[in-house]
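Action item from last meeting closed. Structure (273 res):
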């Protein structure tokens, strides 16, 4: 048993350049054919991880994997619809069959089929949001954690949203689902911290992705939005991917149960800059 005086074995003989090194690690990134998921997978591969590219569209996943391999990285494709439990289990099983383990899990896949008031959302849209954005993450983390325990630890990263932190008249249900993801990360951190398993959320604001295209492609909407950002611009997918690398690597070893807000200052801006 540790006395509390020993240095973490992860830092025995390390050098500063190792802080973001993911060599030898295996990462699953859901929703990684586009946007934040793709940027995260590419960033992790660039830092040495073997990456599983996964989304519903196999052809787009193959494009990402081919790009990673062309740049000297390792990637495989396992298509998966995250609202189907058996497909999630297949994702985990095929990863372990191919590479023997899962060190890093990035739960990025999400949907938002409804834009409007909570009072008007149809039941099927509500269920789709909660099932894909929350229940699937519960399923997948439960599938991955047992083998992380055998490995002696792991990193779970859930991509949430600033919608979890601020109210919205039009994105209320999406915000509910993302707030649930924040609570999921906190509870996983408490439940499995003794097994050296860390769980954190990344909460981006508007990022230049297809998912948020309606919010940044129109110049009028864009200008209105960035007035509320301290940096007066929206974010890029790579800026979220970099945070994910930090949370997965030694640099993030003492961070767990946290919400890392990547919002260009949206949630702190007073509007006088």
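Sequence:
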């Amino acid at each position: 048993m540790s006395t509390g005086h020993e240095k973490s074995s992860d830092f025995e003989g390390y050098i500063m350049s190792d802080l973001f090194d993911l060599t030898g690690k295996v990462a699953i990134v859901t929703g990684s054919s586009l946007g934040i998921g793709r940027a995260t997978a590419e960033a992790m591969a660039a830092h040495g991880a073997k990456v599983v590219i996964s989304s519903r569209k196999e052809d787009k996943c193959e494009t990402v994997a081919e790009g990673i391999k062309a740049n000297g990285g390792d990637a495989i494709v396992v298509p998966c619809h995250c609202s189907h439990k058996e497909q999630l289990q297949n994702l985990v099983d095929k990863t372990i069959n191919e590479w023997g383990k899962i060190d890093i899990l990035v739960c990025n896949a999400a949907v938002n089929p409804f834009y409007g008031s909570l009072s008007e959302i149809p039941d099927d849209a509500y269920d789709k949001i909660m099932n894909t954005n929350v229940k699937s993450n519960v399923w997948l983390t439960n599938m991955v954690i047992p083998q992380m325990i055998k490995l002696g630890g792991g990193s779970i990263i859930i991509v949430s949203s600033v919608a979890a932190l601020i109210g919205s008249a039009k994105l209320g249900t999406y915000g509910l689902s993302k707030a649930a993801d924040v609570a999921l990360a906190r509870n996983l951190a408490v439940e499995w911290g003794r097994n050296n398993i860390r769980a954190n959320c990344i909460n981006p604001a508007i990022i230049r992705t297809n998912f948020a295209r309606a919010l940044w492609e129109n110049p009028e909407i864009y200008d209105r939005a960035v007035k509320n950002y301290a940096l007066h611009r929206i974010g890029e997918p790579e800026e979220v991917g970099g945070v994910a690398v930090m949370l997965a690597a030694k640099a993030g070893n003492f961070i767990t149960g946290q919400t890392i807000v990547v919002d260009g200052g949206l949630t702190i801006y007073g509007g006088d800059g």
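Note appended to the action item: The two ends are 52 Å apart (CA to CA).
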